[in-house]
Structure formats: structure tokens, C-alpha cells
Amino acid sequence: MSLETIQIERVPGTHRVDAAFFRDVSNAEFLQSQLLGRNADFEYAFIDASSVASRLHLLSAVYHAVNTQLTGTLTTTNVHSEVVLSLSPSNNIAEAYRRWGITPAKTKDIIVVSPASTLPTPDEIEQRLREKVQGTPVPLSDEEISKSTDWPKLRKYYGLNGVPILAAITDEAVRVKEMERLIIMRMALRGL
Amino acid sequence: MAAHAAPVEFALPQVLTYPAPTPPILVAQGAEGRLYKTTYITPSLPCALKYRSPKQYRHPILDARLTKARIQAEAKVLDRCCREGVPVPAVYALDATAGWLAMEWVDGVPVRQGINVWLGDRPEDDAISDAEVADETPLVDLMKRIGDAVGALHRTGVIHGDLTTSNMMLLPWADGQSNGASSEDGEKKKAVGGDVILIDFGLATQSVTDEDRAVDLYVLERAFASTHPRAERLFTHVLEAYKQTFKKAPSVIRKLEDVRMRGRKKSMLG
Ligand SMILES: Nc1ncnc2c1ncn2[C@@H]1O[C@H](COP(=O)(O)OP(=O)(O)O)[C@@H](O)[C@H]1O
Ligand SMILES: [Mg+2]
């Protein structure tokens, strides 16, 4: 089973969150064309895993997107694109897609998230993803995510270069934790 | 009258009405807002949610604007402090329009409470034994850590605006510090142990002037004296530590003299 249904605190039943993680995806170009063509079978957020720091990072974006929909303040067309935008520290939608969406030539590992699927069961989603995504399913765990994370890129995206607190930390594991903390805060403060 | 006797249940902010395995707990209820203990993303990650409810006495449009601006300002200050290494809770999420901000839960007690546990509940004029005077070190150390935290804050150009021992938390150390001779002794030591985390930036502003920094310290000094009269004489350790934290700190302490003088004149005039 590659698909996971994730319970997020205070995300109501109307927004069942299903997610899957695929490594070494060979048909990113096809997936992107389907997204651009607004194929109704692709009602998911496709995230480039190299731009994700951890599960908490990813789920924070999902939470923001769902909350935005619940309060009727979506700034993009739907909750899926809102997940992509929510990963960004800025309100530039095109940039968010370039950085967190999939890019045919570059994207290898893809996280697929569906908050509020129109499909009745997780099994059906799994079935569809299996048909469409050519890659190796792996668990959506911190351990697996960390194998894909491109930290120099994240440091640039979230303005973490030259931040005093990070310069003061010598332990690598502590620094990664601190970076995750600052990233989540930057997302929460998007546009401020 | 009887109809009003039942305890008032506050309406939860919308965001807390959505399901979660653990219900939110109302921790504090102030003039401006309420603070809930709740969870963020997973049941194992506690968070503090600050909610500014609509004020009936203000014009609705003005009220909405004020609430939004204050939540945003508080979030920005917390972000800046975190990046600079000032000990404050990080922000998890916010909805300024809805009036809430979720941040890391500091799993400790306010400094006020820690100091009060240390002081115990003996009357003020009780004779203080030599042993007690000799072993004030843990409280003195806490005073120094308060000075360090406020110094770190001021160094980054932030003025807190409401420094009191209720607006700082004590985050207990991992362990190993609890080696008191008697268990009561150990408990007391533990009560004033831990990292000082600054909270409540609802009135924070940005400034690097000696005057603004000195007023911030003065507010804390007055609050400390009235909350902990029996430890008032130890406040000097806060200032001593503060002095070491950044280049301009000594001149802030000199400025504090002027601020105190003005304060005294003002209180004499009534
Ligand atoms: N991040 C936090 N973690 C744990 N407790 C908190 C946190 N923030 C506030 N509190 C508790 O709630 C109280 C009120 O919060 P505060 O931010 O000071 O709001 P107010 O403006 O009402 O004073 C604090 O004195 C403290 O006991
Ligand atoms: Mg307070």
C-alpha cells in the first residue's frame, strides 16, 4: 500500500487527506502536461520532494490550504494549487509552481497530496495513481523525505542563508531541526 | 440574576471548532484575548493558540483592522526573534483576519510562578536563616538568565512593551539538575531552573534607542518589585547580566537612572 490517509488535527471529514510518495518518477513530463491541461483525473497537488524538508513541513502546507478553503479565502483556483502556494514564503504563484511543483527535466521524486478528494475511497485514488505515476512508491516518512531534500535549495527559497541562529549551531541534526522550524514559520507568515 | 450565575462559556474561535482527538483547553483569559492549549498537525505536538475575539465596544471595521494588524505584528516580531536566536516560541500558523495565531507550546510555568514557589509562602517579615541567604544562587542565576533574554531581545532592535514575570516562561531543563539535599530543597531549585522564554509580544515595537530600551527595563523593574517584593533586592542581577549582552547595554543602564528619576517625580506629583 503506497497511499496513506493522514489525519491532521482540526481538518474536518470533508477534507480527507490522502498522500503518496514516489521515487525516481520517469514520467514527470506527462504528469505536468496533464496538470496544465487541467485533466480532472489529476485533482491532486504534485510536489517536488526535493523542496520538502519533512512531513511536518508538508502537512503544514496542507493545513494552511485547507484552512484557506474553509474560511473562503482561497487565492488560487482550488485547494490543490493552494497547497503548492502554501509551501512558498511569498505570494508569487508562478514562482511557487516552479519551486514546489514538478519540473519535467529536474523532478525525480514526487509527493502527491490530495486534501478533499472527489473520489469516494482511498483505494480508488491509489488505483488511479498506480496507473498514472511511473515511479517506486515509498512510505511518506521523515526518513524517506530526508533522502530527497535539497537543503541548499531550501535555504535559498526560505531566506535562511546568513541567519544568525543557524550560524551559531554546530550540531548538524540540531541545525536541520532549527531550519525546519524557521521554514514552517516563514510559510505561516507568507506575504507578511 | 440567577440566569447569569452559570459560568460563562466563551465561544470558541471557528478554527478550534473543527475535530481533533484532544479538545482545546482555555489556559488564560486576558482583556485583549484568550490563550488555548491545543494541538498542531498531530496529537503529539502541543501548541498555544492566541485568539483575539471581536470587541463589542469597538466599531466592527476598526476592530477587524486592529485585530489583524496586531496579530500580524506579533507574528513578525516572533519570526524576527527566532531568526536572531532570541528565546521565543516559533509561529506554526496564523489567520490574522480570523484573529488567531498558533505557536509552539512552552511546556513550563510563568517565571512569576517559579519565583513564588522558590520564595515559599512565609510572611515577608519572617526571619531569613543564614542557610537560606547563603543558598540564593539558583534564584540569582534565574535573574541573570532574565537579563540575558531581555538583552538578546533588545540587541535585535525589539522592545517588548509589557515585560513582567508573567510574560516569560521557564522551560525546564532536560534533567540532572535535580540533586537537592532534601526533596523540598530539590523542588525549589527545580522551580527556578530552566531556560527563560519570552512571550506575549502584543505590544512590541521596534527601536534601538537607549530611552525605549530603558523604559522597557523600567517597566520590568516596577512589575518585579510589586509582584515579588521579597526578591526586589535581587533585581540588580538582571541589570548586571543585561549589561554584558550588547555594546550599548551599559548606556541603557545609565539611561535607566533618568527614567527612574522621572518615575519618582511623577509619582510624587500624584
Ligand atoms: N507559547 C506558550 N506556551 C505556553 N503557555 C503560554 C504561551 N503563550 C502564553 N502562554 C500562557 O498564557 C498566558 C497568557 O498569554 P499572553 O501571550 O501573555 O497573553 P495576554 O496578552 O493575555 O497576557 C501566559 O501568561 C502564559 O501562562
Ligand atoms: Mg501576558
TrEMBL record, chain A:
The keyword Cell membrane does not apply. The keyword Kinase applies. It comes from the Eukaryota. GO terms for molecular function: kinase activity. InterPro entries: CGI121/TPRKB (IPR013926), CGI121/TPRKB_sf (IPR036504). GO terms for cellular component: cytosol; EKC/KEOPS complex; nucleus. Pfam families: CGI-121 (PF08617). Transmembrane segments: none annotated. Keywords: Kinase, Nucleus, Transferase, tRNA processing. One of its GO terms (biological process) is tRNA threonylcarbamoyladenosine modification. It is found in: Nucleus. Component of the EKC/KEOPS complex that is required for the formation of a threonylcarbamoyl group on adenosine at position 37 (t(6)A37) in tRNAs that read codons beginning with adenine. The complex is probably involved in the transfer of the threonylcarbamoyl moiety of threonylcarbamoyl-AMP (TC-AMP) to the N6 group of A37. CGI121 acts as an allosteric effector that regulates the t(6)A activity of the complex. The EKC/KEOPS complex also promotes both telomere uncapping and telomere elongation. The complex is required for efficient recruitment of transcriptional coactivators. Belongs to the CGI121/TPRKB family. This is EKC/KEOPS complex subunit CGI121. It comes from Lasiosphaeris hirsuta.
UniProtKB/TrEMBL annotation, chain B:
GO terms for molecular function: ATP binding; hydrolase activity; protein serine/threonine kinase activity. Gene3D superfamilies: Phosphorylase Kinase, domain 1, Transferase(Phosphotransferase) domain 1. Keywords: Activator, ATP-binding, Chromosome, Cytoplasm, Hydrolase, Kinase, Nucleotide-binding, Nucleus, Phosphoprotein, Serine/threonine-protein kinase, Telomere, Transcription, Transcription regulation, Transferase, tRNA processing. It is an enzyme of class 2 (transferase). InterPro entries: Bud32, Kinase-like_dom_sf, Prot_kinase_dom, Tyr_kinase_AS. One of its GO terms (cellular component) is EKC/KEOPS complex. Its EC number is 2.7.11.1. It is found in: Chromosome, Telomere; Cytoplasm; Nucleus. NCBIfam families: arch_bud32 (TIGR03724). Component of the EKC/KEOPS complex composed of at least BUD32, CGI121, GON7, KAE1 and PCC1; the whole complex dimerizes. Component of the EKC/KEOPS complex that is required for the formation of a threonylcarbamoyl group on adenosine at position 37 (t(6)A37) in tRNAs that read codons beginning with adenine. The complex is probably involved in the transfer of the threonylcarbamoyl moiety of threonylcarbamoyl-AMP (TC-AMP) to the N6 group of A37. BUD32 has ATPase activity in the context of the EKC/KEOPS complex and likely plays a supporting role to the catalytic subunit KAE1. The EKC/KEOPS complex also promotes both telomere uncapping and telomere elongation. This is EKC/KEOPS complex subunit BUD32.
